Task: inverse folding
């Protein structure tokens, strides 16, 4: 159910970034439910913003995959089917396993230090607990590491193409687990394996972790 009463006026009426952040927070929290139809007029009125920066913010969230704009139908909060999730999980698992195979021999001390820095930033966001949308961004950056390190241009482009879909998946995933952000222990384990010496253990972890995540998320929708 869409709860537009949860929308409060934004102090700075001209900042697209602040509008986009507020809308993202409401989508992540579930106040704007999947499949809900939104109108510019109602959003502008509830948020107390003008149409121009609102349109820019909407365009950003459409590009990120959180909103969907359908010609002659309108603007909607993204929704997914079971088939959508199953396809996304299977593709992401295959891509990430391939990325680690390509990246494994390229793991220099500097590269591993960068992975740990990304995990530290994610840990800090999780500990803060007040910006689940920020944690999602940092979780995406953590997982981007192996694709960037792989040196495989087409693989990196494939990852970048599915990232907007993953944005919304992470929203559902967090709600399915009843928490407002990623699970710290899961990513600490991910990083420990990525910094270790057992590639097969890393690949097996990806398979089992994503399979469990899919099952939990499917039970939620």
Result:
């Amino acid at each position: 159910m869409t709860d537009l009463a949860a929308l409060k006026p934004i102090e700075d009426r001209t900042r697209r970034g602040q509008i986009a952040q507020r809308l993202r927070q409401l989508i992540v929290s579930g106040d704007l439910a999947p499949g809900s139809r939104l109108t510019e007029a109602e959003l502008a009125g509830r948020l107390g913003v003008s149409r121009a920066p609102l349109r820019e913010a909407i365009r950003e969230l459409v590009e990120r995959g959180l909103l969907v704009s359908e010609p002659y139908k309108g603007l909607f909060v993204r929704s997914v089917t079971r088939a959508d999730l199953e396809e996304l999980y299977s593709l992401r698992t295959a891509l990430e396993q391939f990325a680690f195979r390509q990246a494994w021999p390229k793991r220099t001390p500097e590269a591993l230090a960068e992975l740990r820095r990304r995990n530290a930033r994610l840990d800090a966001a999780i500990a803060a607990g007040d910006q689940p949308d920020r944690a999602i961004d940092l979780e995406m950056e953590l997982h981007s590491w192996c694709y960037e390190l792989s040196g495989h241009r087409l693989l990196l482009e494939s990852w970048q193409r599915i990232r907007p879909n993953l944005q919304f998946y992470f929203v559902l995933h967090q709600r399915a687990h009843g928490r407002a952000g990623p699970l710290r222990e899961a990513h600490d384990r991910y990083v420990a394996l990525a910094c270790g010496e057992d590639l097969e253990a890393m690949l097996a972890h990806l398979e089992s972790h994503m399979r469990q995540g899919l099952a939990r998320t499917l039970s939620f929708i």
Remarks:
- Strands lie at 37-38, 67-70, 74-77.
